[in-house]
Amino acid sequence: QVQLVESGGGLVQAGDSLRLSCAASGRTFSSYTMGWFRQAPGKEREYVAHISLDGGSTYYADSVKGRFTISRDNAKATAFLHMNTLKPEDTGVYYCAARFMRTQTWAYWGQGTQVTVSS
Hints:
Blueprint: E1 2-7, E2 10-13, E3 18-26, E4 32-39, E5 46-51, E6 58-60, E7 68-73, E8 78-83, E9 92-100, E10 108-109, E11 113-118
Parallel strand pairs: 2-11
Antiparallel strand pairs: 1-3, 3-8, 4-5, 4-9, 5-6, 7-8, 9-10, 9-11
């Protein structure tokens, strides 16, 4: 079991940058693939990015590729989402998620942090 707590959301203007953090506690952090998802008002939750156990491989949704960077610090049990050149369509609640090793189910979720990008 792992517990996840996101932070770093806020209200920014289009073109600005923001960094989200996801602090994990519980089981060994390096045993979990980490991911970020988001949910815009009135829409379903969507995948944003994920990172491998050792941080050596990263994957992104096309909508954020080239603007967002996912990273992790296993020593600090924290995952990050660096967001650059933010757009109003990036607005939503951002969730951190974890899945054990290389399983396919995102079994653990944080409570979410709100990101609002004004035009």
